[in-house]
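Q: Sequence in, structure out?
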Amino acid sequence: MSTHLSQQTLDSLSTAVLSLDADLRLRAINPAGEMLLDSSSRQIVGEHIESWLPNNPELIQALNDTLASQHPFTTRETMLRLPNGESITVDYTINPINEGHGVHNIVLELNQTDRVLRLAQEEKMLSQHMTNRAVIRGVAHEIKNPLGGIRGAAQLLERELPSEELKEYTRIIIEEADRLRNLIDRMFGPNQPLNREPCNIHELLQHVRKLVRVESGSKLIIRGDYDPSLPELSLDRDQMIQALLNLCRNAIEAMAGNGHLVLRSRIERQFTIGGERHRLAVRIDIEDSGPGIPEDIRNDIFYPLVTGRPDGTGLGLSITQDIVARHGGLVQVESRPGKTVFSIFLPLENPHGRQG
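A: Exactly. Output:
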């Protein structure tokens, strides 16, 4: 096999592969490795591993042991600290390469296992989202049809009634039918086309913060924690506000209006949504200090009509998921007693208008 073909094969691999010399200086790295480490080969080739992958003493020790013993080494589900300060879970394999004349090199393969687990969870969420849309459409249809019948019957009855006093009751029926129909239209608004426009996500978060402040009273502590470097996003402003409101209202109800609510924004790098890896994505966290999501419904909370509150409808989270999914994004949740975080991930668009 030619050197060119070997390099071509290496570049096509989805596994991160790095070649290091006996001094642990980088000789080569494939594109998957550059993406995993969020580093360019031009910047790190020739540099010692500790300069571009610091704070990983276990890995350094394993590399030195492999050089000394000339035996392969594999470890599973270990923590790797990236140059940007984040940590990921990886499997890695170290293979010694003897090139003759006493020169030894090593090949390091890194496979991000938490990404695989997250992709499996994401596939489940996308499948759940499709189920949600079918249920939501069915619920809307089953409610709006009889409402139309009730309204029409009330109009016919109103024409036959001789007394204005009695007609007042039919007007109430008509008005309430209209109110319920409008409510359903608002609740299932994501079925309408998105009206995208450039939006400052912090302006939206501040707007939501003011709304929930008025609704919740003075016992709740609401804090904003924003990354000022975030660019504008192309969003349907009203629908995204509704998605954020749903999450905040759920959090406030879980805390019984007394606790801490944090609205946070951050940048995520090399984030995968729907099987597509995006160079940059925005993460919006809604964090509360409530009791956490009951374990028996934790895996099903995005399904319609699933709720942990006796008076809840179980529709808010499924509608939020639908809105975010229609924006090309993803909703995730982590929950334990004292801390629940709902995270919305939205891909950033490049200057040419394509996501990624």
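The chain has two domains: 3-112, 194-356.
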